[in-house]
Amino acid sequence: MSRVNITAATGDSVVQPVRIGLCGLGTVGSGTFNLLQENAEAIAARAQAPLAIVHIGARRDNPACDTGDVRVSRDIFAVVADPEVDVLVELIGGTTVARELVEAAIRSGKHVVTANKALIAEYGNELFALAAEHNVALRYEAAVAGGIPIIKALREGLAGNHIEWLAGIINGTGNFILSEMREHRREFSDVLAEAQALGYAEADPAFDVEGIDAAHKLVILASIAFGIPLQFASVYTEGITRLTPQDLDYAEELGYRVKHLGIAKQGPRGVELRVHPTLIPADRLLANVNGVKNAVLVEGSAVGPTLYYGAGAGGKPTASAVVADLVDLARDLSAGQVSRVPSLSFANEALRDLPIVPMAEVETPWYLRMEAEDRTGVLSRIATIFSDHGISIEALIQKAPAAGQTTVPLIVLTNLAAQGRVDAAVTQIEALDTIAGQVVRIRVEFLDG
Amino acid sequence: MSRVNITAATGDSVVQPVRIGLCGLGTVGSGTFNLLQENAEAIAARAQAPLAIVHIGARRDNPACDTGDVRVSRDIFAVVADPEVDVLVELIGGTTVARELVEAAIRSGKHVVTANKALIAEYGNELFALAAEHNVALRYEAAVAGGIPIIKALREGLAGNHIEWLAGIINGTGNFILSEMREHRREFSDVLAEAQALGYAEADPAFDVEGIDAAHKLVILASIAFGIPLQFASVYTEGITRLTPQDLDYAEELGYRVKHLGIAKQGPRGVELRVHPTLIPADRLLANVNGVKNAVLVEGSAVGPTLYYGAGAGGKPTASAVVADLVDLARDLSAGQVSRVPSLSFANEALRDLPIVPMAEVETPWYLRMEAEDRTGVLSRIATIFSDHGISIEALIQKAPAAGQTTVPLIVLTNLAAQGRVDAAVTQIEALDTIAGQVVRIRVEFLDG
């Protein structure tokens, strides 16, 4: 392989490098540092300028990365104050110091690249406005689905489409847990403990398994897709902590698989924003995305369904997205303009505050499981309750009783039914003396184009 | 939904529309025309300027599209000559008139968007140089995999990666035929006739089933991925016409599925460029891409495997990609620069003329099927021949004879073996008097990350 002469590659005698200040030297920070070193030649040939890290802000060194003679400050705000820095890369996470840091960078005229989904989901509207005011870029490809270029696909690649809906596996830890539960019939708590030992899940796993992380990502995807302001508070979030291997099994028998999905839909009554366990037909590609991988299925009015799959987390995959943003920015800088693509794809003034459909009105088919006494008349009583609430039944299956149980599991698959109706029917069913305990409720989505 | 005020949306009092000349009004042409009408508001909000078709060049009208009072010329070169046209969209196909048209447009300072894979694959090097010389854009997202934004993913979204290999189902007709053959145990010729009746395959299907169309697309993907000049003549191309339902069945029994893949790999000896039927493990996502859909799997050094899936052809999906290019271009025009992203992602001067690995040296595992007399010593003779050629055998399976046959099918799965060695071994095996007819040879790829 011939060496690329970076200067010659740009057809210019002196090319100014893009000078990067890197804040945060954890897994993603060191991954970004190392990727920029290891692939420097190809990256410069693509960006048409070298990308040079000139200042690192990190509370401690990371043995995974040899920072050589790059300036390192323990005070990350020293990076913002450094006049040699053109672009600040924020990889510290969280929404307190990170927010201050990003705001300070923007105010001092620096471009910002971040992997911080919480920051964008919760404070993106204000930060994008601030960036526009200061004529700097704020990029966030790494904030959703790690290395999968889904932000670029939505902001640019599908720009001709009216996006009808999207559905994604956007939390790798949750998907790992569900994959393990299904494949090895293991309990949630058991797999969670393993995921923590493997370093996939945090010591406090609520962020992953309760769907908060997925909700952060979903709200970003939905805003770009539909042209609506970011609104994290509007997302309905339901975790996977109450799923049992038994329900995953029954789903499988019925031809479905259970995935923790982030779903955004645009319809005549507004926008649905929801994260919850979902039965999907087992032959769908999304159903076959296993382990820590992520995938997002997008339904566009012209293109139909498209799917984007890959690593949703991890140092190197996330670094891939951070560097893609840096290359993009370098290309913009070479063209002398950083705002060619509006932050949320739609011009700010064109963002519309569409209503969010209340969950009680959101219609899906449902998987419902209950423990019923094996007695004449129970089935017809239940069927009557559903009918009284206008819920039509697609299938009603009675399973054999578990060992030592006097009740039998009864599984109902409904047709499209609003959550409000289902809740009302379930309340009545749970009050029957022939029904033991609570009714398990999981939504179903066919993900049809 | 509130109406978007296009003028206000750009924050400017007068926004110049991007004026488009559309050449070709077939399926894709009318799809593009209609998409730009139907989704005009959202497209303008994203592009920050209206996209207006001002002149159509088409030999005949298309009832699928109401061109209203847009100027229509029967002579497509009238569109090039029109000073009101900023961007020429070439959707006539072929490499003769289309090439003249695109060259003329570039020479007259017009930007070009094309869906023409043959044109880019065969004449792209010259056309990109010409476009650079005239400082205009030449965009081709629609040339590969229809509506899937795979060109953008490779040129931009994965720009931080060293791309190690990619493998794609990039001809929908071929994939439809293989899906039908497998699912319904039908013969190739039978399904081909149906595909022709459905309009998926041309009257002369060679382009699709012999792999020429896939080779066009592969060479474009490989050039962007590896930073090498376009070189259509270097692609090894093998069609699907000799595949039998029997081989698809045996593959399935062994845990594989047969797909017609375009594969590009970068290794120490150079670049492999090949289109051929391939056994892949049945649990891979690519193995589960069925019907006319396309998908491309890309292995990046940082991100690992990512996959892009969607409609690879058809009027509306291809129009989605054409309009994405137009939005991209409009955004570039608003920034006053159209060459921020080099045509093949790498700066022209950084393109490297890497050697192409001769097929005889390309190593893959192999699926080999032969008809052998069911007699003592045949297996050991065959095993010896493989061993003599340094080919190690992973599995050797003898099937039951087909009704009325005196020979038995013998299936050999090899470990990694260069084609040259396999060819030599097969020549010797075919010369044995205990072997009837020819040995079926299909490559195997694990597609491991």
What can you see in these coordinates?
Two copies of one chain form a homodimer. Chain A has 449 residues and is an alpha/beta fold. The first copy, chain A, has three domains: 10-147 and 316-350, Rossmann fold (3-Layer(aba) Sandwich), CATH 3.40.50.720; 150-311, Dihydrodipicolinate Reductase, domain 2, CATH 3.30.360.10; 362-444, 2-Layer Sandwich (Alpha-Beta Plaits). In chain A, 36% of the residues lie in helices and 25% in strands. Chain A is built from 15 helices and 18 strands. Chain A has helices at residues 6-9, 27-38, 40-47, 77-81, 97-107, 117-133, 150-157, 172-184, 188-198, 206-209, 212-226, 245-253, 315-335, 378-388, 419-430; strands spanning 18-23, 51-57, 71-73, 87-90, 111-114, 138-139, 163-169, 236-237, 256-267, 270-281, 293-300, 304-311, 363-364, 366-373, 393-398, 407-414, 417-418, 435-444. In chain A, strands 7, 8, 9, 10, 11, 12, 14, 15, 16 and 18 form a ten-stranded mixed sheet that branches. A six-stranded parallel sheet of chain A has the order 3-2-1-4-5-6, sandwiched between helices. A two-stranded antiparallel sheet of chain A has the order 13-17. In chain A, helix 6 links the parallel strand 5 (111-114) and strand 6. In chain A, helix 14 (378-388) packs antiparallel against helix 15 (419-430). The longest helix of chain A is centred in the C-terminal third of the chain and has 21 residues, at 315-335. The radius of gyration of chain A is 25 Å and the shape is elongated. The two termini of chain A are 45 Å apart. At the A-B interface, helix 2, helix 3, helix 7, strand 12 and helix 13 of A face helix 2, helix 3, helix 7, strand 12 and helix 13 of B.
